Amino acid sequence: MAVDRPLERALLVRLALAGGMSVPDHRLAADLWGDVDLARPTERLRVLASRLRAAIDSPDSLTRVNGGYALAADLSDLTEARAAAERMHLAVRAGDRLAVKTAAQEALDLWRGPSLADLRTIPYAVAEGEQLDAWKLTLQVELLDAELSLGHAAEAARELEALAAENPLHERLWCLLALALYRTGRQADALSRLAKLRNRLADELGVDPAPDTAAMELRLLRQDPTLLPTASESPAASSATRSTAAPAGAVADLPSPLTSFVGRQAELAWLTERLGRPGVVTLTGGPGSGKSRLSFEAARSVTDRPVRLVELAPLTRETAVLEAIAGEDASGNDPIGAAAASLDGSVLVIDNAEHVVEQVADIVAALVRRAPGLTVLVTSQRPLQLEAEEVRPMRPLDALAAAQLFTERCAIDAQGADPEQVAAICTAVDRFPLGIELAAGLTRTLTVPQLAKRLTDRMRLLVAGGRDSQARHTSLVAALDWSHQLLGDAERAVLRRVAVFAGGFTLEAAEQVALDPRDVAPALTELADRSLLTVEAVNGRRFRLLETVRDYALTKLDEAGETESVRSAELEWALSYVQTTGHNSGDFANADALNEVFAEWLNLLDVLDRAAGTELAASGLRLALAMHTPWLIRGWFAEAARHYDALTDAPGATTSERLTALCNHGFVLTMRGRFDQAAELLTEAERLAPHQDDETLTLTALYYRSIVEIERGRLLDAFTPILTGQALARSSSEHERRLSAFTDALGTLYVYAGQSERALECYESCIGADREYGDEHGLSRGLSNLAGALVGLERWDEALKAANESDHYARRLDDRQILPLNDVIRGLAAVARDDLDEAEKHLRSAVEYALADDSGVSHAYIDLADVLVRQDELDEAAALLDAVFAEAPAHSTSWLAARAIAAALALAQDDRPRATTLVNDTTIAYTRTGFGWPRYAARLTEVREALG
What we know:
The protein is mainly alpha-helical.
């Protein structure tokens, strides 16, 4: 779009740089006209905005929002450059120099001269333009570094000479120039360039060169052979190296750095080397001392082993530590052993362990005993106190590194500040990184002299009156306190209130807990500008407080006496969010809605855990009820049971809510094999249901009763609640979805009873309804059930087709209940082809789901045992069946199925008397219960015929 007038163009660019967020009037006025006392700035902006709307193609994209303006547009070149730069940084970490060169060049090609050159007379454009030019220089340096690594020293030297002349104090640039000259046979010129740099640093800044620069000079003097390019640095070798290096996914869960790493080079070198050996290393230090950043930088250097990151900061329950560290292995019978086996030979990074240090110490000690090749790197304010632990305290940055960090993070116009004032600011916050970065962020508002004066005064007050401060806040509170005092009342209120979110938050969530929702957008902009929160571009915009800032803000929330009311507002937001998402998606009928809910899981979990046993318990129960379907889809039965157990009897809950909770709790316990306990809860629900005059509640109780009776093996008893529920559901069109659920349950009952044709009719009816509603969860479940019925009819091709389509929906939903069932279908089809190896592979995959999710034994155990019997692997088959019989109550569906395979096992073991007894007793049990599941009934018949 063409916007000719400079001021309108300046407004357009300023709003586009804000990325769609509202910029308040006072900030816009200062950015456009500077720190002058304007008459009627709001009116001036209104006129300017009106002119801009008339000049652009989509005037509706410029809107008035909460005392400011927002533009629904972005700078396409800048967006593309950022994307290319991100690819470049990924390539740097992967060591792919050719990809670094390509991505850096793509980003640089988007520049057409100096940044914002036509707007440099506008106050904000000076700083923004210089910042963009500084970023461009960074890209140029990375490009030339890659050129050097690819063996193009002569070409790189020419460009480096020009850039070094323009940037006479840029040490990395001058070191690259020296290296390029050395590689082209000009050692004397290389040393001359570094000597010139050393003199300039001393004359203009009064400092010595950085350690890396001094080291480069020494290596040039010694003619270090490693300065010359090696075969591995050629493009061809680079490609070969990439093909054999550790996979990029090995460090995929480490957060990508958004800023440069400054200082601590000696610590980084030591830690990088130390991570090459097994053992435990703990980085200790106060909040904001840089423990996490150093650990991530060192972990990113690991290329030959897998790296796993565990962040403990969001955890509030001590019992969740094992789950976080062991991951999927936490739910098995020996979680430490399983975790040790999967982690052996890798690097495990455990971040922020101080609030659960005892639990972490016990787990780490057990892991390293059982995983001799494991390296554990821990960050914590306290050491683990293990005998074999190497503790490295985080000291303050040295004066030069602290000043460099401040200079890199401050506003562009502050970068030439008085070194003594910069040193005073860094010293006032103990030269720890977070304090320095917070102080540097304030240079967008204050000059460095103003900053130095106020920070020094603030520290003097802290020393005089802050002796009772917590030790871990003694120095950091100075920066935080002072930053907090410079905020307006609205920004302070928003900061302390959004601190309740344990897992970050969206704009809409913040508005729900705010005193005045209109304050939130401009306040978040201000807080981001002051480096008090980070903005993540994840499905829109997501905000996150630094951990220490959040801790500080929660203290302020307590001091304001607002904790209880804000926690209540957070819970109401959580409830509304889940209910609205469910309602808009037809009870989470599609994967997108499910993913939206679980994107907020850390916040939802925090709210649920806090609600139990408080005045908010009834609202917590409502949230648990709203989460029921997402929990079922993901197969989180244990998690659901834990919350129902804590909240079902919440004071203040209605009878209807309690009844629904009893039914839901009964169902999830059924899915965990606790049939008797589930039956008790459902009996209580059935006692309450008739008094509610609510058909929906009655249908819920009938449906879950039918499921528990089916799973208990009481198939004949299950017909009554199913048929009663069907009849009631048919009485009203409002219950159409419930009717489909009862029909699905009837189909399962027919499968277990050996009536596969009738089951097929039921499932086909349900699938038709699910397709009409667009219910992805219904299709995931229904198509898998259909495949099971087709197996009973030995229609193998159709069964596999249905299982594959079911997989499509199950994977979108991460439906861990259905995915293993589809693996079982594939395993059974392989058995029918007499391909037992293929069958074993699919059935083992199904069993692994149960082990990973701690969902108890499943029919996959039984079917795998059957395949192992056919392969004469009798000991493992016996172990699998023992596991089934240990968990499955007598005469339950799983027990009945396993009895047929147990008879086959006894026959294979040549124990004919036992096999005969099992066949006779099982035949009687099948007749009494109505059990006739084809594959198990057929297997029992095979054994009977073999016995003669």
